[in-house]
Design brief:
The complex is a heterodimer of chains A (112) and B (112).
Chain A (H helix, E strand, L loop, with lengths): L4 E3 L2 E5 L4 E6 L6 E7 L6 E6 L5 E4 L2 E5 L5 E6 L8 E8 L7 E3 L3 E6 L1
Parallel strand pairs in A: 2-11
Antiparallel strand pairs in A: 1-3, 3-8, 4-5, 4-9, 6-7, 7-8, 9-10, 9-11
Chain B lengths: L3 E4 L2 E4 L5 E7 L5 E7 L5 E9 L2 E4 L6 E3 L9 E3 L8 E8 L6 E3 L3 E5 L1
Parallel strand pairs in B: 2-11
Antiparallel strand pairs in B: 1-3, 3-8, 4-5, 4-9, 5-6, 7-8, 9-10, 9-11
């Protein structure tokens, strides 16, 4: 099935650094969702975006719905150890029966 | 508390055996989903159900079966036809007026 292009695949950062990741597609989406998955657990929704250009924050996390509606970005400011995990983007198209299309994930690792 | 409960957390399957993974939700959500996650990879859709007594194949339905006899329950059976069943299985649900998917905590299935 279709999948979003999510990058980077993994990131090694120092505690306190800012983090950026993105998802792109050749298709237009109506909604973008960002999830975080801790090891051995299900993904948890972080941020939902519904309009092109929308910028939404959740604490140190900020996500944007790209103007072209074909991409989305997630930024984490001043990373802390509990930010470790896998971050997934998902896009929703209303003309595809609201099925979610997933990125392959960005694994965030914080260097000690 | 409202949520999605998956059981068991860990499951072992002998060769040639069928096993069933449980998923129950008390969120009154209409749609339910089963995803498979392999190590270091994203989520792949197995089956989904938008209403009781109806379900649709996802991208990797072969070797799996589901039922939706009650709104709250969407069990997944991994049949002996699934030759590579070792994976992390995630159940999710979606309310009718939302595009936000909520996940259970997953079941890790391994082959003995």
């Amino acid at each position: 099935g279709q999948q979003l292009n999510q990058s980077p695949q993994s990131m090694f950062i120092q505690e306190g650094e800012d983090v950026s990741m993105n998802c792109t597609s050749s298709s237009i989406f109506n909604t973008w969702l960002w999830y975080k998955q801790d090891p051995g657990e299900g993904p948890v929704l972080l941020i939902a975006l519904y309009k092109a250009g929308e910028l939404t924050s959740n604490g140190r996390l900020t996500a944007q719905f790209g103007i072209t509606r074909k991409d989305s970005f997630l930024n984490i400011s001043a990373s802390i150890p509990s930010d470790v995990g896998i971050y997934f983007c998902a896009g929703v198209r209303h003309d595809s029966n609201y099925q979610l299309i997933w990125g392959a994930g960005t694994k965030l690792i914080i260097k000690p | 508390d409202g949520g999605i409960t998956q059981s068991p957390k860990y499951l072992f399957r002998k060769e040639g055996q069928n096993v069933t993974l449980s998923c129950e939700q008390n969120l009154n959500h209409d749609a339910m989903y089963w995803y498979r996650q392999d190590p270091g990879q994203g989520l792949r859709l197995i089956y989904y159900s938008q209403i009781v007594n109806d379900f649709q194949k996802g991208d990797i339905a072969e070797g799996y079966s589901v039922s939706r006899e009650k709104k709250e329950s969407f069990p997944l059976t991994v049949t002996s036809a699934q030759k590579n069943p070792t994976a992390f299985y995630l159940c999710a649900s979606l309310s009718g007026n939302s595009e936000k998917l909520f996940f259970g905590s997953g079941t890790q299935l391994s082959v003995l």
